[in-house]
Specification:
Radius of gyration: 22 Å
CATH architecture of the largest domain: 3-Layer(aba) Sandwich
Enzyme class: translocase
Shape: globular
Number of strands: 13
Order of helices and strands: EEEHEEHEHHHHEHEHEEHHEHEEH
Keywords: ATP-binding, Nucleotide-binding, Transport
Strand content: 15-25%
Structural class: alpha/beta
Bound molecules: adenosine-5'-diphosphate, magnesium ion
Number of helices: 12
Family: Belongs to the ABC transporter superfamily.
Strand order of the largest sheet: 6-7-8-3-9-10
Number of domains: 2
Protein name: ABC-type quaternary amine transporter
InterPro entries: AAA+_ATPase, ABC_transporter-like_ATP-bd, ABC_transporter-like_CS, P-loop_NTPase
CATH superfamily of the largest domain: P-loop containing nucleotide triphosphate hydrolases
Largest sheet: 6 strands, mixed
């Protein structure tokens, strides 16, 4: 869907992006992760041709981006940024309708789409449709920004630190909602962030960048091995192994009870993840916990061995 091959962007002597190659498959979220100034935004902007590359090839749907009429390319790519945000003198409805209007959709279809998108991003239609950006909180404005990028249903979305200006609680909420929306929409996404936990929560694959160079590109479970390991390990930190456990649902690792059910001191709901299980076992000094389904049935156990085995596989 998106393929970068040996892409470079040089500003005089500065190598903002240096021989970067990666592929993002259809329906996949690729997170570009790295410190400020490592070339994440530059990479994103070369994909929708806001910036020309110095050399290398960028293909979208098998076609070189330079061979597209630029308007057509941008129309198939939604773009969400933190700071450019919404037009302040336009209502939420008007902001979201911009691209549909450009595409000359009729009023009824446009209005229906706006309502559908507001619902999708979790904003009450009647309450928000006529508001102005100045009347929205940071989190609400970002939701409208996401709705606007989705308006014409582009297959590709580029997101540049979209939740960066939002407070931690709303940020976590937006991340969860984004994952939920993506499960429904299956967009091809390139998501830029400097936040390791955000990358972990959202990415199907993570590309770690440093000084314009891709240091490793892999699923979060595999990112600690391969690539420039020394850099990657130092950047992610040893506690990455603990963070990664949040990606493993308990339900996938259940084993049958090794003792009578009444012997278990701990019990976790089946919707938890291995990080919850480890935290609970460590804090209570237990080697295992029982797991209970939504309807109250006891399903089996999670034990320390399982968690350690999963961690070993991630290494
Ligand atoms: N228009 C420009 N002219 C010169 N240098 C630039 C320009 N835009 C970005 N840079 C430099 O390129 C590097 C990468 O920038 P950027 O892609 O914005 O980083 P990130 O998004 O990872 O924070 C930085 O060193 C930045 O200062
Ligand atoms: Mg940036």
């Amino acid at each position: 869907m998106i393929a970068l091959q040996e892409v470079c962007k040089f500003y005089d002597d500065l190598k903002a992006v240096d021989h970067l190659s990666l592929e993002v498959a259809e329906g996949e979220i690729c997170v570009l992760l790295g410190k400020s100034g490592c070339g994440k935004s530059t990479t994103l902007k070369m994909i929708n041709r806001l910036i020309p590359s110095t050399s290398g090839q960028i293909k979208v749907n098998g076609k070189n981006v330079e061979d597209y009429v630029v308007e057509n390319l941008r129309r198939s790519i939604g773009y969400v940024v933190q700071s450019i945000g919404l037009f302040p003198y336009m209502t939420v409805e008007h902001n979201i309708s911009l691209v549909p209007q450009m595409l000359k959709w009729d009023k009824k279809k446009t209005r229906a789409r706006v309502e559908e998108l507001l619902e999708l991003v979790g904003l009450d239609v009647d309450l928000y449709i006529h508001k102005y950006p100045g009347e929205l909180s940071g989190g609400e404005a970002q939701r409208v920004g996401v709705a606007r990028a989705l308006a014409a249903d582009p297959p590709i979305i580029l997101m540049d630190e979209p939740f960066g200006a939002v407070d931690p609680i709303n940020r976590t909420r937006l991340q969860k909602e984004f994952v939920r929306i993506q499960k429904q929409l299956h967009k091809t996404v390139v998501f830029v962030t400097h936040d390791i936990e955000e990358a972990l929560k959202i990415g199907d694959k993570i590309g770690i960048m440093d000084k314009g160079v891709l240091q490793n590109f892999a699923p979060p479970e595999k990112i600690m091995s391969g690539g420039n390991q020394a850099f990657v390990r130092d950047f992610l930190g040893e506690d990455y192994f603990l963070k990664i456990l949040s990606r493993f649902p308990i339900a996938d690792y259940l084993v049958s009870f090794s003792a009578p059910v009444t012997d278990y001191k701990l019990c976790l709901p089946a919707a938890s993840n291995l990080q919850n299980a480890l935290a609970m076992m460590v804090s209570q000094g237990e080697m295992k916990t029982a797991v209970q389904g939504e309807n109250g049935t006891m399903l089996g156990e999670i034990n320390l061995d399982t968690v350690l085995r999963v961690l070993k596989r991630s290494e």
